[in-house]
Amino acid sequence: MNNNIKRVLVTGATGSVGREVVNILVRNNLIPVAMVRDALRGKEMLGNTELFICDLQNIHSLKNIGANIDAIIFTHGSSSNAGAMELDYAGVANVLHALECHRPRIVLMTSIYVTQRSGTLMELKDWKRRSERLLRASGLEYTIVRPGYFDLIKPGDDCLILGQGDKLDGGVGRRQIADVLVQSLLNNTALSKTFELVAGQGNAPDEWGALFKKLVADNGIDGAMDSLNMPLADEPENAKQDLARITRNMH
Question: The CATH number of the domain where 162 resides is what?
Fold first, then answer.
């Protein structure tokens, strides 16, 4: 268990998973700091939660983002190709650039299927995967969680199934996702690991450290056991430049 974390910044804090994360952080005696664009909406949805007012897509608004923060949980995201680069990817890139000398622990939520380069949402998946690569290259302590379909579960689906290699299929509850995001932050056995997450019939986990310990740690810019089907040489120029800058500045 990691006892060095107290204040946790949450992106996408007013979203369905973000709100659950905020609640679970409080239950674990941690202090959530909710990143929001609209202070009034943040106050209405999150009550007395401390707010950090900024815009993920505007790096200038992220000045001093790492000050007095021990960790960040990224729960923001879009559901279409339209916002893939501008939100899913740029949100992570901007925060990493803005951290400067600060080195918080990071948990990033992306999605299952990010390595499957086909289908109508291929652009969204590709940009989520590029955000993962930036985080792995940053040298920061991290965990990357790829949940399945939100709330596509049945009564009794309390068992959490963690996989690697992007082969899992299925759903998982929003509250279950939030639990895993927070526990990934608190357990050092989750460090440097990328995994998919779905739920199935059975009991909820009672030993989080052991659950994460079974996973293989990443080694490089791709997740352990991921298909090597997105060559860096073929990547968009902005993605290559961001990766080089993050690698240079964060080490």
Answer: 3.40.50.720
On whether the CB atoms of residues 226 and 146 are closer than 8 A, the answer is: no
Q: Is residue 232 exposed (0-12), middle (13-18) or buried (19+ Cβ within 10 Å)?
A: exposed
CB within 8 Å of 147: residues ≥ 6 apart? 109, 111, 112, 172, 177, 180, 196, 197, 198
3-state secondary structure of 226: coil
- The pLDDT tens digits for 39-55 are 999 999 999 999 999 99
Question: Which residues of the chain form beta strands (DSSP E)?
Answer: 7-11, 31-36, 50-53, 71-74, 105-109, 142-147, 149-150, 159-163, 171-172, 193-200
With CA atoms as reference, report the closest residue to 142 among 97, 188, 102, 176.
Answer: 188
Residue 12: give the domain boundaries: 7-250
